[in-house]
Amino acid sequence: MLYVPDNVKSFLTELGEIARFSTRFFREGFLPRFEWEEFFRQCYVVGYRSLPLVGLTAFIIGLVLTMQLRPTMVYYGVEVQIPAMVGIAIVREVGPILTALIFAGKIGSSIGAELGSMKVTEQIDAMEVSGTNPFKYLVVTRTLATMLMLPVLVILSDTISLFGAYLGVNLYETLTYPLFFKKVFDNLTYIDIIPAFIKTFFFGFAVGIIGCYKGYYCEKGTEGVGISANSSVVASSVAIFILDLIAVQISDMFQP
Amino acid sequence: MKKRKINAVKLGVFVLTGLVILVFALYTLGKNKTLFGSSLELKTRFRDVNGLLLGNNVRFSGIDVGSVQGIKILNDTIVEVTMTLEKRMRKYIRTNSLVSLGTDGLIGNRVINITAIGGSAPFVEGGEMLPSREELNTEKMLQTLYGTNENVGRITEELLQTVHLINTSTALSNLLNDKSLSTNLSGSLLHLHETSKNASILMKDAIATLQQAREGQGTLAVLLNDTTLATEIKQVVTQIQVLETSSQRLVSDVNQIVATLEKDVQQGDGTVNALLRDSLMAESLRATIENAEKGTAAFALNMEALKSNVLFRRYFKKQEKKARN
């Protein structure tokens, strides 16, 4: 029999568990009865309440990216292309990945901790006893909320980031607002926007499902709550990078 | 319950904003990038675009208002540049605006400058070909500057020599040290002033006279305007010329006569010579004249006697009567 190290074995086991958990999500998620109220509440919590943090980060990143790019662009005499370059960078990569990581940090940890504490305090068991399906109520609503709200957050963070970039350009030269956006959109195509938009659904799903899994199967009491919160952030962040790699490979196939 | 409703509204706004932005972005790309007012397209032609790139800025009155959309070589001497400008520039750019290539800073990126030159040309509508102007080439400017520098150096050298000559010249030194020079100069200037004053008065009079003449007053006007006078003067001049010719002929004849007389006198020939030099002739002439006088007196007496004659008395009375009437 092939020897497999314990950590690899546990990683693969966890991966399998997450896959099974995801299957259950798809199996139960689209069957009635739907927990609409909880779903909208989760949408508000994971989406709307994440906007200030995501927006601030996006604005700063847009501004800083522009300022950092400028010396090199000036060196090569192509500073007129800064809006185009920043636009492509933000829309294709920086916006989605950065927002997803911030989202994983904020929402992944909160879901892991919330569900973990519910698990260790046996609230989930209590729900089962009372006839409420805890998977539908807790996991499906949260995962759907993260899956649907992250794309919206990414769109808004891209926009805010471009405003930051516009400010960054105008710190050194005078460029009107319409002209800046014209330069940005002149160099964007559908192949830049659509794959970047689609992959954010997967990022959102990864953050939600991993956070829920880590919390749902939390063990070791209060210590386990911290572990589940922490590991849900780490695992969802890694998942985001892996999904991003796959998404880039796929979108590259459609590049002209 | 109320709080939950507000949360729903906030969530709705949040999601809707995201979706609107997404649709807006996709629509912008689909509409061939015209949503940000970039539909104003203008063209121009250059002989040499000097490193202009796609995406370089287009400036109007120093403000970035667009970018270079296309660069196309038409033939060996013409390059056509297509610019895309903000739609609102339709209100500011006229069809006679001049397009020139410039540089952002001294050695920065190439930019296209659109300069308004005024006038009443119509505003652009899109697709117009704007006239272009050759740029101020930095290299050419530096070459000119180099030439100017050389000239300045040469002038400085010559100026130095001139100053040296002035400093070492004794004549100039004497002139400068001559204290009476200023007095003389001021005297001269005073005279010059008076002269100019007189000249001014003279000019005034002349102008007044000319003014009178122009208005048809005074002798000068008559002289200038009377055409018959001019004809008469011409006739007089012609007559004077004729007279002069006759006089010359007369003088010539007189000279001839005098010459003949002189010749006669010298040779002792002719009547004049006899009159001037022959004493017998003179005596005879005098006796002749005396005889003539005597004869005349006798004739007068005879005539008196004739008047009292019966035959002629009547005739003489008739003559006296006619003379009285």
Task: Specify the structural class of chain B.
Answer: alpha/beta
| Main β-sheet description of chain A | none
Number of helices of chain A: 9
Output the helix-strand order of chain B.
Answer: HEEEEEEEEHHHHHHHH
Instruction: Write down the Rg of chain A.
Output: 21 Å
Helix content of chain B: 55-70%
Q: How does the overall form of chain A come out from the CA principal axes?
A: elongated
Rg of chain B, Cα atoms, Å: 57 Å
For the largest interface, the chains and their residue counts are:
A-B, 37 and 34 residues
Provide a descriptive summary of the structure in words.
The complex is a heterodimer of chains A (256) and B (325). Chain A has helices at residues 6-29, 36-46, 51-75, 82-120, 123-129, 134-170, 177-186, 190-216, 221-253. With 256 residues, chain A is an all-alpha fold. Chain A starts with 5 loop residues before the first helix and ends with a helix. In chain A, 44% of the residues are buried. The mean pLDDT of chain A is 90. By secondary structure, chain B is α/β, with parallel strands linked by helices. Among the domains of chain B are: 1-35; 37-139, no CATH class. In chain B, 63% of the residues lie in helices and 14% in strands. Chain B contains nine helices and eight strands. Chain B has helices at residues 2-30, 138-168, 170-177, 180-215, 218-225, 227-267, 270-277, 279-307, 310-324, and strands at 40-46, 57-60, 63-73, 79-85, 98-103, 110-115, 129-130, 132-133. In chain B, helix 4 crosses helix 5 and helix 6 (227-267) crosses helix 7 (270-277). Chain B is elongated. Chain A binds chain B through residues 40-41, 43-44, 47-48, 51, 77-81, 84, 149, 151-153, 155-156, 158-159, 173-176, 178-179, 181-183, 185-186, 188-190, 193, 197, and chain B through 4, 7-8, 10-11, 14-15, 17-19, 21-22, 25-26, 28-29, 33, 35-38, 53, 55-57, 63-67, 84, 86, 108-109.
